[in-house]
Amino acid sequence: MASNGISKPFYMKNLRNREQWIALVALYRHRCVSCFKRLGWRKLTVDHVVPEHLGGADAIDNIQPLCNPCNAGKFRKTTDYRGDFEKRWSMLRK
Ligand SMILES: [Zn+2]
């Protein structure tokens, strides 16, 4: 698929994607996985862990929720925040 930057967000494409996205956001406590800002699924942005232009799939297992500033700051880097989310989150609350 062409990466022209104007394609619909993952969760706008169909109902199944939307359900997957909402479940993913709930899994990460409705927060940005980088800075923990609580936003909810409508305001969090879809970040492809492996960017689509590097061959990453537009699929839920390649997606993490980021807030706008974190997504903009990440730009084209490949940073997977998902693995240690719970660990970082529990440290933050101590
Ligand atoms: Zn953030």
Question: Any descriptors?
Answer:
94 residues, 9% strand, binds zinc ion, two-stranded antiparallel sheet, 34% helix, alpha+beta
If you had to describe this structure to a student in words, what would you say it looks like?
The protein is of the alpha+beta class and 94 residues long. The chain has a domain at 31-92. The protein has 4 helices and 2 strands. It has a two-stranded antiparallel sheet. The termini are far apart. The mean pLDDT is 89. The site of zinc ion has 8 residues, from helix 3.
Task: List all distinct small molecules, including ions and cofactors, that are bound in this structure.
Answer: zinc ion
Poorly predicted runs: none
Largest sheet: 2 strands, antiparallel
- In helices, the fraction of residues equals 25-40%
SS content category = alpha+beta
Roughly how many Å apart are the termini?
44 Å
Overall geometric form: globular
**Rg calculated over all Cα atoms:** 13 Å
Tally the helices: what do you get? 4
What is the string of SSEs from the N terminus onward? HHEEHH
Give the neighbour order of strands across the main sheet.
Answer: 1-2
Strands, total number = 2
Strand residues, percent = 5-15%
